[in-house]
Automatic annotation (TrEMBL):
Name of the encoding gene: queF
PANTHER family xref list: NADPH-DEPENDENT 7-CYANO-7-DEAZAGUANINE REDUCTASE (PTHR34354)
Gene Ontology terms describing biological process: tRNA queuosine(34) biosynthetic process
Main localization of the protein described in the UniProt heading: cytoplasm
GO cellular component, one term: cytoplasm
Stated family: Belongs to the GTP cyclohydrolase I family. QueF type 1 subfamily.
Naturally occurring in which organism (per UniProt): Shouchella lehensis
Function in brief: Catalyzes the NADPH-dependent reduction of 7-cyano-7-deazaguanine (preQ0) to 7-aminomethyl-7-deazaguanine (preQ1).
Protein name: NADPH-dependent 7-cyano-7-deazaguanine reductase
Length: 165
């Protein structure tokens, strides 16, 4: 089996870069992609970000969450270090929980045009209540659109034990 040739990673500039600069405001331009080496196969790629932070747009108090991103790639995939830096850019960004997860999903759809994607934010309680928004998308006029509808209608019917709160 042969490995990926470096020339196929010309769009990946952050991985291995020791001079990484962190954006302190929302910055989707930091996201990078690389080619899916298995576009003939459907498979999930999952990311868990247990240290996501954003600000309440009204009180400017910090909100903390674990962000779960799962997607089925088509031609392009998101590079993980750029995703980490992108999620970090929400640190001083003011958005409600629901807006944050939808913004993340919208930016990743625009970046990669995946077959399917879902983003789930599990926010720690503030004021005695937690908010766990979930959104998903399946490419229009494909079986993934039907999959998205099914997963949305059946989402969280059997919630797992929450251990990050």
């Amino acid at each position: 089996m042969t490995g990926r040739k470096e020339e196929t990673l010309t769009n990946v500039t952050l991985l291995g870069n020791q001079g990484t600069e962190y954006a302190f405001s929302y910055n989707p331009s930091v996201l990078e992609t690389f080619d899916n080496q298995h576009p003939n196969r459907d498979y999930f790629v999952k990311f868990n970000c247990p240290e996501f932070t954003t600000l309440c747009p009204k009180t400017h108090q910090p909100d903390f969450a674990t962000i779960y991103i799962s997607y089925i790639p088509d031609v392009k995939m998101v590079e993980s270090k750029s995703l980490k830096l992108y999620l970090f850019s929400f640190r001083n960004h003011g958005d409600f929980h629901e807006d944050s997860v939808n913004t993340i999903m919208n930016d990743l759809i625009q970046l990669m045009d995946p077959r399917y994607i879902e983003v789930w934010g599990k926010f720690t309680p503030r004021g005695g209540i937690s908010i766990d928004p979930y959104c998903n998308y399946g490419k229009k006029e494909t079986r993934f659109e039907e999959m998205a509808n099914y997963r949305l209608m059946n989402h969280d019917m059997y919630p797992e034990t929450i251990t990050n709160r």
